[in-house]
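cache lookup: miss for this entity combination. No prior model stored, computing from scratch. Input as submitted by user K.M.:
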Amino acid sequence: MIRLLVQELKFRRGAILGWGLGLCFFPLMYIGIYPSVAEEMAGLADLEIYQAMGMNLGTFADWVASILVIFLPLVAAIYAIINGTGTLAGEEEDGRLEMLVTLPLPRWQILTAKALAFSISSAVIYLIVSLVSWGVFKAIKDQIETSLTGQDLFLGVMAGWPLVFAMGMLAMFLAAFCSRRRIASMIAAAILVVSYFGSNLAGSTPVLEPFEPFFLFTYLDSSGSAITTGQAAEDVLVLLGIGLVSFILAVIFFQRRKLTVGAWPWQRGQN
Amino acid sequence: MKNIVIETQDLTVYYGKFRGILDVNLVVEKGEVFGFLGPNGAGKTTTQRVLLDVFPPTRGKATVFGKDCQREGVAIRKHIGYLPGELALYANMRARDFFEMFEYLRKDKKSNGYWRELAERLDLDTSRKISQFSRGNKQKVGVVAAFMNRADLLILDEPTGGLDPLVQKAVLELVRETKAEGRTVFFSSHILSEVQAVCDRVGIIRDGQLVATRRVEDIFAQRMNRLTLIFEGSPPSEAFQMKGVTELRQGKRSLTLEVKENLPAVLAAAAQHQVMDIETHNVSLEEIFLAYYTGDEGGSYD
């Protein structure tokens, strides 16, 4: 399995570099410009439209959390969906998975290697962005008033990774469950968007409150305290738990999947 | 005792309500080249995929090297080289990286860089990216990947598809060498001349069912003659009702017969009637297989 993991990581080298550098746009742009917009942003702190999007712009910590803690996982989750569905259903549809499963490797190992490769690659992407955030913060620190340290910022940004992990595993499970990659991607994207807006709107819309526990973004604190004190441990555990349960379900469904046929689970044993 | 490499018992696969294969009973022995023939959609690829545990059968059982294909798939696949009919490769890799990856993933000491020799024999430039290859060169990559671990069993789904005649010849030579080394080849093809060239036995599958399994030499030994007898008057068809003779067509003054055996008796019967002319021709291998493919064999070829 280690050999396959090494290969899967090699396949993701380009993605790690591309996504890692691409997502550095967030810290470079949004942390970099903060000294010039700080006063203006403080004035927008109470606008409901920003709150509905999970944004609070009052302090530097709020600003960073609103951009890097919330938007970064949202965009990185797109990588998770592409990777999670592509690595199973995508490779199945284009025929490459058939070559792989006809090698002397058990299916659970194939899936575990792919899941680990995704987890490591997404963590490395996050690491790149977190390090760049730290660097940009160092560069502007003298121009702003904040008690934050570079380490706070680094850890605060990294703390968004469990949500990306959960989303990636969920996408992988959907790819093992659904008949086609297109369907799995659509469902995963819908979960992402509904989670994002649902979680943010639940705070201001009582009708959505009962559904709040079902939204992934509920478990990601987007206030300034996410940077100053970090994410709540129980929220991180919930996200990691969702990821692990999704992975186990993915293994179960992948083990029983009639590869190359593209059937739903209930069609797989039919006479 | 026969050394059986592949054995299927009532092997059946359904895709939802659609039939894949139905009650396929097949035995392939060690050291033989077994040709698996049938029209498109007959169930050849489905059978191969069950043997490789790409998906399980709906009913029945398949064993390779005496092991259950589903329960002991990993152990079985250590000894199999596979060339899929719908070949999909990692387009962004160079061919040599692809072979090294396969060698690495198989943890196979037997291959030990054998792919280099194979690539040279097939005139494949392994320094180029697979995405830059023509269809034929991609097929060469698949062929090398299938042969590179010197597997005890090779499952090849139309291995010469897209290859030029010279490379086709080289691939068939590889199949012969595999057989000469006592290894087994399960070979599906549409090209009857190559089946004739390398296969010991053939199984013919139609509409998901195995309709015949024969030795290639037996098929040739029993190749039929087709005779058209022209009579002066109305043809006496009852005179030719004998074992091994099938009446194909009766004209106003002619009778066309397919003669599998008893040719002297047919000629003797013809001599007793006023035969004006006799036309003969051999039934080709293609015609025999096409009869199986279309279901017109009428029992004459079994």
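stored under new cache key. The interface with chain A takes residues 14-17, 49, 52-56, 58-59, 73-75, 77-78, 80, 82, 84, 86-90, 101-102, 104-107, 145 of chain B (CB under 8 Å).
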